[in-house]
Amino acid sequence: MNDRYGSDVLAGDWRAPVRGRSRPVEAEPGLVVEDVETGWCGAVVRVEKAGGMHVVHLEDRRGRTKGFRLGPGFLLDGAPVTLTPPTAAARAATTQARQAAARTASGSRAVHGARARVASASRIFVEGKHDAELVEKVWGDDLRLEGVVVEMLDGVDDLAAVIRDFAPGPGRRMGVLVDHLVAGTKEQRLVDEARALRRYADHVLVVGHPYVDVWQSVRPERLGWSRWPVIPRGRSWKHGILAELGWPHDTQADVARGWQRILGTVRTYADLQPELLGRVEELIDFVTADASPHP
User: Fold this and answer.
1) What CATH number is given for 23-101 in this structure?
2) pLDDT recorded at residue 109
3) pTM for the whole thing?
4) Do domains 23-101 and 123-218+266-288 have the same CATH topology?
5) How confident is the model at residue 228 (pLDDT cuts 50, 70, 90)?
6) What CATH number does the domain located at 123-218+266-288 have?
7) Adjacency order of strands within the sheet including 65-69
C-alpha cells in the first residue's frame, strides 16, 4: 500500500548537522585539520598537557605554529572531528611507519644505527658560516655517513691559493660552493682563475648558485613572501632583508639572530631553491666518487 503522505520527516537523525556528526580521531603527528572557529589549517606537530588540558599544536604551510584545545571543533577533509590524544598503540605504529620510510632532510633514505665514517681526505668548501650551517642542516646526515667534512673559505678572493694549499689529487678531491656565481661578476673571474690550475683540474669541482647570499636560497614562501625583496645598491643586503622582515637589524648580533630565525624555517630540502640543491648534490657526488675505503 502506497504512503500518500510520504515518510515521517521526524524519523531518523534529523538533528544531525549538515556536515554530519563529529567522529573521534586521534591527533597523530602529520594529520592535517582545520580549526572551525578561526579557519587555521595545519598539520599536527605535537600534543601536550598544559594548564590541566590537552593542547594540540598545528603548523600551517608557512611554518607558523598555533595551539588549540584538544577536542571538538575541527574539520578533517571537510567533515567534523573530535581530536583525541594519540594512544600508545597509535604512537608506536606511527614511529614504526616513520622508521620504515624515514628520510633525511636532504631526501635520502635514512640509515638507522649507522655510525659516522672516519673523515675522508676529500672536502667540500663553502664561503662562510651561514653556508656551512645550511649545508649541515639539510645534508649533515648524508655527509657524516660518507665521512665528508665541510670547511669554510671566508670568501673566495684567494680561491686559487686555497686550492694550491689543499693540493687535491687522487682520493683527495675538493668541491667548492660559491655564492653569486654569475657571468661578469668578480666571483666568476676568481673562479675562472682557479679553474685554470690545470695541475688540479681533474680533482677540483667549483660550482655556484646565482643568489647574492645563501639566505636567498631559502624559498621566500618560508618567510611569508612570494619573492625575495630587492635591496637598493649601497645598502647592506642582509640588514635590508631583516628590515623588510620587520626584525632587529642594526648590529651584527641582529644579523646573526636573524639568520638563525631564517635557518629555523628550513626543515628539509623542499624548503630550498633548486639552484642550490642541484649544486650541493653535485659536489657530494663529486667528492665521494673516488673516495678511498673507510676503516
Assistant:
1) 2.30.30
2) 57
3) 0.63
4) no
5) very high
6) 3.40.50
7) 23-26, 79-84, 74-76, 32-35, 41-50, 53-59, 65-69
